[in-house]
Write a structure and sequence with these properties.
heterodimer, A: about 525 residues, alpha+beta, four-stranded mixed beta sheet, 17 helices, 22 strands, B: about 300 residues, about 80% helix, globular
């Protein structure tokens, strides 16, 4: 069949279809032209979901960050490539004047669309301060932010109450750092609050030309953009939740850039589709097996340590991640400040040592439960742990839960279920600053996101101190010690930071991504 | 007839109200919190409380339900805290995609299956009847999502004739994007309807009025078209009405496989994220659609068969 059909392209099939079906479909443009019309200098890319917000102060998902980076400007932005860093965007210059003051000067001539004038320092002030004024849940990304002082139309000073080092790779560079037009937002919302999905004005290289929910997000060139001309005339982002569907869309030629699943990665690498480049990027996720230290069965640290040492991480990664990811040493991914070179417990564990800990605890015939979400990744992890712990005589009951039910398990506000929680397969997405990846384990997060109920005054003290230290090496050491404390408590067995493989068609585009593989669409170049 | 319509309308309202109430109670009985899903690890108790307040989740269940029905009477399905958009807008945006998928799937299935069923009945035990018998049973047996995946791999990935994902924009583009999903959704119905038409037709062809028509020398095709088919099609019409509910559930799989927008995918996502206003809105609309479809099939039956009409 392939031999017979091999030379019939979609275009010729549709062309024939158009001729044959023209009468049925009525007059106007031939059917085939509908498809041809979509070609040209157009980037077609898949995202992992649809947009739910385009307000930088209230965003929910990564795809929104990817789109907002194209339609708004910010003072500084992430540098493309394999190392985390930043480069100037709307700012002509920016400097740390002292530990709590950052002075910026805006480039002249950055226009907001819709006649909302030129970007000014007052817009920066408005954009940051509204995050706090309207009590955004993203406010913690700005830490100890106090205010913005204006010096002239283009110059301002961002003031923090206490030093907040994450500002460079978190507050200013991530989505909450986008600069909005005060005039446009006030006119659209009256109080400057959440404007949801309708941007009142654009200031980036692209504008949102069209959005069809669950179909596509269409970005076209911003005619008022005075900066460097972006590569593509049009960017069409197609939201596809399912990774396999994304791969099929790529193979069918519907899109030219997409992320792919880890279990397909080996196949794509060994036998890539024509004109395709496969890139593997480390992700910012961190996965671990958590243990609730307040549960009677896990109160004894020796029991927790026995479990830690009985878990063979590479085996889990082979089973659940198709062996395509590296072992994690903590919550901070490689390439970030504070990443540990190795964990305290070796990845393979040691069954003899695990049994020693169990003997020390004097525990026999122990049965514990492990909770996980219902997706195949997490349930595979849970089942592998079940098999591994049986080797030291611990029976494990696996509780598979749907997403929403799982994410309330350890919350004290959601009832008493946290008291029954024992082992947990957990995974959080991180951000490029270690502050974000270590905060959920503070004491004030017990019963909120700290489900292991890990308590360490030293940990909290180091976390507060790490926010104030500029020197990456000195700061890194604090975060490394914090992860040592976590692991030493026996509450955590770190698994992996995951990976984010992407593929793109080299005959269509040269892709540009952040070090975690997130696309920087405005930087993509046509080929 | 008017009394019948009135009865059906009252019944429809009751069915919709019961279905929505049951689902409301079920979804609240399962643990899960939309605010936590929405906010993720960034959530503080204050922020969660704020979302609860926005969604009305801080009120007792009975009050929440009363508020929902109160809004429905005013044509308002509530507000989605996730996207800050009216639920009605979101549902109405997705609904046409599912309706067009169901409509086209049924349409092509009926166009193929009815003549096939008639032919198989008239030429009973012929080669065509035997082959059709095997093929149609196979079509019924294969789940639509399996057909969807293979159709996609053959026609979109390997041959690249048709698009793999999405729904296109505009009428003609939309039709192209509908080919594979409608094929996958409708193929089982080709088998089902053709078997049903064949069986009904065989029964009707043996009835007295058909034998009398034959004795008058009327041609076989005229007998089939004029005297047999209007009666033989009645069970199919009834089944099509009920089939809307079945098609809505298969649409969920098809919408996921082809990454098509639609209310099937919308409700799955909403249930997973405990997005109660969307779930309630979609269930209300789909239950209403099913009730309308079954009522319509009853009315068509009554139109085709005067005996049924008298009972209304």
């Amino acid at each position: 069949m392939k031999h017979i059909m091999g030379n019939v392209s979609r275009r010729s099939f549709l062309k024939t279809g158009a001729v044959l079906g023209g009468g049925v479909l009525g007059g106007g443009m031939p059917l085939s032209q509908v498809i041809w019309a979509a070609e040209g200098k157009v980037l077609r890319a898949c995202s992992d979901g649809d947009i739910t917000k385009l307000d930088p102060a209230f965003y929910n998902r990564q795809v929104e960050v990817d789109v907002m980076s194209c339609i708004y400007s910010k003072l500084i932005r992430y540098k493309p490539g394999s190392e985390w860093g930043w480069e100037l965007d709307a700012a002509e210059s920016i400097e740390q004047v002292d530990p709590t003051h950052i002075r910026f000067r805006l480039k002249k001539g950055i226009k907001f669309t819709g006649g909302h004038g030129e970007m000014a320092a007052k817009d920066v002030k408005f954009s940051i301060e509204r995050i706090f004024k309207h009590k955004s849940f993203l406010a913690p990304q700005w830490g100890s932010f106090d205010r913005v002082e204006l010096e002239d139309d283009y110059t301002g000073v961002i003031v923090f109450k206490t030093p907040f080092v994450p500002v460079w790779l978190l507050s200013l560079t991530d989505a909450t750092g986008h600069v909005l037009s005060e005039d446009a937002v006030m006119k659209a919302t009256k109080d400057g609050g959440d404007f949801g999905l309708k941007p009142p004005a654009f200031s980036g290289p692209y504008v949102l030309a069209d959005w069809k929910p669950n179909q596509y997000i269409l970005l076209t060139r911003n005619p008022e953009w005075a900066g460097p001309k972006p590569g593509f005339d049009e960017i069409r982002v197609v939201p596809v939740d399912d990774l396999k569907a994304r791969e099929r869309a790529y193979l069918a030629g519907d899109v030219d850039f997409t992320s792919i699943s880890l279990d397909s990665l080996a196949g794509f690498k060994s036998n890539p589709p024509a004109d395709t480049k496969v890139e593997e990027w480390p992700s910012l996720w961190y996965y671990w097996i958590g243990m609730n230290m307040d549960h009677p069965k896990l109160k004894d640290i020796n029991v927790r340590k026995a479990i830690q040492w009985a878990i063979n991480v590479p085996q889990i990664l082979d089973a659940a991640f198709a062996g395509q990811v590296n072992v994690a040493t903590g919550t901070i991914a490689p390439g970030l400040v504070g990443h540990r070179a190795k964990a305290l417990v070796p990845p393979e564990g040691d069954l003899a040592k695990a049994k020693e800990f169990l003997e020390k605890a004097g525990v026999n015939n122990l049965t514990v439960s492990i909770d996980c979400t219902s997706d195949s990744l997490n349930s595979t992890i849970a089942q592998t742990v079940q098999a591994q712990l049986s080797q030291i005589g611990i029976s494990v009951e696996v509780n598979i839960r749907d997403n929403s039910s799982f994410w309330t398990l350890g919350m004290e506000s959601e009832g008493e279920r946290w008291k029954d929680l024992q082992l947990i397969v957990n995974g959080f997405i991180g951000l490029p600053d270690p502050n974000y990846n270590t905060n959920p384990f503070l004491q004030n997060q017990i019963g909120i996101w700290n489900w292991e109920r890990f308590r360490s005054a030293r940990y909290d003290e180091l976390a507060a101190k790490a926010n104030t230290i500029d020197d990456p090496d000195a700061r890194g050491k604090l975060y490394q010690e914090m992860q040592d404390l976590m692991e030493d408590s026996g509450c955590y067995r770190f698994l992996t930071n995951g990976a984010n493989p992407v593929i793109y068609r080299t005959t269509k585009t040269l892709a540009s991504t952040r070090p975690d593989g997130a696309p920087l669409f405005y930087d993509f170049q046509p080929v | 007839m008017w009394l019948y319509l009135l009865k059906r309308t009252v019944l429809a309202v009751a069915i919709v109200a019961i279905a929505v109430t049951l689902l409301f109670l079920m979804i609240h009985a399962v643990p899960g919190d939309p605010a936590i899903t929405l906010l993720g690890p960034r959530a503080s108790p204050e922020m969660i409380a704020q979302i609860h307040q926005q969604m009305g989740l801080d009120k007792p269940l009975a009050v929440q339900l009363a508020i929902f029905f109160g809004r429905v009477f005013h044509g308002d399905l509530g507000f989605d805290a996730f996207s800050q958009r009216p639920v009605r807008e979101i549902v109405l945006e997705q609904l046409p995609y599912t309706i067009e998928l169901i409509f086209v799937s049924i349409l092509w299935a009926v166009v193929i299956a009815v003549p096939l069923g008639c032919y198989s009945a008239i030429r009973r035990n012929s080669l065509v009847d035997q082959v059709a018998g095997v093929v149609t049973v196979a079509a019924i047996a294969i789940p639509s999502f399996v057909v969807a995946v293979y159709a996609l791999l053959i026609f979109a990935v390997t041959l690249r004739w048709l698009p793999a994902i999405g729904a296109g924009s505009g009428f003609r583009d939309g039709l192209i994007y509908l080919i594979l999903p409608a094929f996958a959704t409708g193929i089982g119905w080709v088998g089902y309807i053709s078997r049903l038409v064949r069986a009904s037709m065989l029964e009707v062809l043996g009835e007295n009025h058909v034998r009398m028509a034959r004795s008058f020398g009327i041609s076989e095709w005229r007998i089939v078209a004029r005297y047999a088919l209007p009666l033989a099609i009645l069970p199919t019409v009834t089944i099509l009405g009920v089939g809307i509910a079945w098609l809505l559930s298969s649409a969920v799989f098809i919408e996921v496989v082809f990454a098509r927008p639609g209310i099937g995918k919308l409700i799955v996502d909403a249930v997973n994220t405990r997005n109660y206003p969307i779930v309630m809105g979609v269930v209300l609309v789909t239950t209403f659609l099913i009730v309308v479809a079954t009522t319509l099939s009853d009315l068509v039956n009554a139109f085709l068969d005067p005996r049924t009409r008298e009972k209304l």
